[in-house]
TrEMBL record:
Pathway per the UniProt entry: Amino-acid biosynthesis; L-histidine biosynthesis; L-histidine from 5-phospho-alpha-D-ribose 1-diphosphate: step 4/9
Location in or out of the cell: Cytoplasm
Superkingdom assignment: Archaea
Protein name as annotated: 1-(5-phosphoribosyl)-5-[(5-phosphoribosylamino)methylideneamino] imidazole-4-carboxamide isomerase
Gene: hisA
Family assignment from sequence similarity: Belongs to the HisA/HisF family.
The enzyme's E.C. designation: 5.3.1.16
Native organism: Methanoculleus caldifontis
Gene3D superfamilies for this protein: Aldolase class I
Residues at the active site: 8 (proton acceptor), 129 (proton donor)
């Protein structure tokens, strides 16, 4: 199981939000410094989110993110503000290993097949942001149907992996909700990376035992509630 620390970028700064609300941002400083720190500690890759893009300012932070990708030469998955095939292709050409498509994947599912055919399935990761079992889009404001049904549709279109975020617990640092994860993993045939609520090594062990391919850590990691070495030990343990 792989661990991807989140590097969420808002207005050029590394931040963490609570429940996706920009007004609840905690600022941590320079994104590249945090990216290097997590990689130096052994992270399997970085989960970068262009929050300005997610809030409609797609080009903001673009140069900063490109520089970070080139500098670290690490595995990078990236989401936020990807509104078209051209946006996604631009990032993949820049060197992002896989793009995360959320609202776009729901609004225009055919882009998954288009990108998978051109770049390979392994580089296309639809984001399943779910609240109460329903996919949420447009900044987690609009419900769009069953997260399990969408997962199956995304797979059928050629997605090589899925990113599942439990919006109900995201950013709260109170632990994961494992049952929705298990339900998804029982249906999914492609690797699933899980985000939302991971606050202890025990959460990571539970996800690994359930069959998750990876986990994204954010708020609890930056707040010091959980430490990357212990998380990596739990994720990489041979049992």
């Amino acid at each position: 199981m792989e661990i991807y620390p989140a590097v969420d970028i808002l207005d050029g700064r590394c931040v963490q939000l609570v429940q996706g609300r920009p007004e609840a941002a905690t600022v941590y400083g320079e994104p590249a410094a945090w990216g290097r720190r997590w990689l130096d500690l052994g992270a399997d890759g970085l989960h970068i989110v262009n929050l300005d893009g997610a809030f409609g300012r797609a080009q903001k932070n673009a140069d900063l993110i490109r520089d970070l990708i080139k500098e670290t030469n690490a595995f990078v998955e990236l989401g936020g503000g990807i509104r078209s095939v051209e946006d996604a292709a631009g990032w993949l050409d820049t060197g992002v290993d896989r793009v995360i498509l959320s609202t776009l994947a729901v609004r225009s599912p055919e882009v998954i097949k288009t990108l998978a055919d051109e770049f390979g399935s392994e580089r296309v990761m639809p984001g399943i942001d779910a609240r109460g079992g329903e996919v949420m889009i447009e900044g987690w404001e609009q419900p769009a149907g069953s997260y399990l049904a969408w997962a199956e549709r995304f797979e059928a279109l050629g997605a090589g992996a899925l990113l599942y975020t439990n919006v109900d617990v995201e950013g709260l640092q109170q632990g994961i909700a494992i049952e929705p994860v298990k339900d998804l993993l029982a249906r999914a045939r492609v690797p699933v990376v899980v985000s939302g609520g991971i606050s202890a090594a025990a959460d990571v062990r539970a996800l690994r035992n359930a069959g998750a391919a990876g986990a994204v850590l954010g708020s609890a990691l930056y707040a010091g509630k959980v430490h990357l070495p212990e998380v990596l030990e739990a994720a990489h343990a041979k049992e």
